[in-house]
Amino acid sequence: MSTVQQPDPRDRPARLTVGVVGTGRVGPALAASLGLAGHRPVAASGVSDASRRRAEALLPGVPLVGPEEVLRRAELVLLTVPDDALPPLVAGLAETGAVRPGQLLVHTSGRYGTKVLEPALRAGALPLALHPAMTFTGTPVDVQRLAGCSFGVTAPEELRLAAEALVIEMGGEPEWIAEDSRPLYHAALALGANHLVTLVAQSMELLRTAGVTAPDRMLGPLLGAALDNALRSGDAALTGPVARGDAGTVAAHVAELRRHAPAAVPGYLAMARTTADRALAHGLLKPELAEDLLGVLAGATPDGPADSHDPENPENPENPESPESPESPDNPDNPGKGDTQ
After folding, report:
1. Cα–Cα distance between 78 and 29 in angstroms, integer?
2. DSSP letter, residue 50
3. CA-to-CA distance for 283 and 235, rounded, in angstroms?
4. Residue 232 or 14, more confident
5. Residue 182 CA to chain centroid, in angstroms?
6. CB 28 within 8 Å of CB 78
7. Bridge partners of 77?
8. Is the pTM above the cut of 0.90?
9. pLDDT over threshold 60, residue 214
10. Is 151 helix (H, G, I), strand (E, B) or coil?
11. What ranges do the domains of the chain cover?
């Protein structure tokens, strides 16, 4: 019994010619993915050496030309430039007459919907906003990561099916985002993904300072489990000293951070206060413990020691400004209450 061999997508007739304006980390990966779906990348623009290397790796044989020439050659154009560069780019392309009627113009900014493409729309372009909710490395692995990746999709109603079809062809999952919700949508992604990188990097630095030789190996299983639990259970997954109301432990954390990594204190305090609020609102943090905890956090200002709330050092609570007080700014070497918050 013979088996039916599935055709290679690259052997199918090309349906759209694809151009990329801005060969950063995102554009070449999306164009390469569209190429695998049967479309044909024909032109890209990039200035830096890194951009040129990315284009060569992900779009071999595709010529690098100027932005206007990319639009001249392509039926589907990916505008993959930084957010702040997008409005002037669109306006400039429209003014030069590079935009053609019926041309699909796709930007990948999370911040903007389709209104930013208004100058091109007036020139007859078909505007789409397709933002992949993914972090990119600028290497071929990005094409694989698009499988199952959610895309924030914004488009005119008459182009909605076309936008969603393009996302599906790239292996993604379309998620409709209203025009006026794009900034909030993008803020949510930045809060979850961009700030996560900062938190993990800080955590690894602190573990190295504490003597851990392989912080990545230590954090990997822990953070993987925490992320999985958070995605499954939301706030019910909160654990740790803040959610438990361990005020003394939190005070000790702040003291150690002040000593070894003072730049990390503001972030720790901000996240601890937010965690406490959410744990309290969801019944995880007992109100009688929340009072002590919030007192510690209120006293532990980013620029100075905590107040006299530390249960480990109750001495001298009445006059924190006294030179004898361990909280006094004139006595920074006293290893007392000011250092244990």
Report:
1. 11
2. H
3. 10
4. 232
5. 14
6. no
7. 19, 105
8. no
9. yes
10. strand
11. 13-177, 186-340
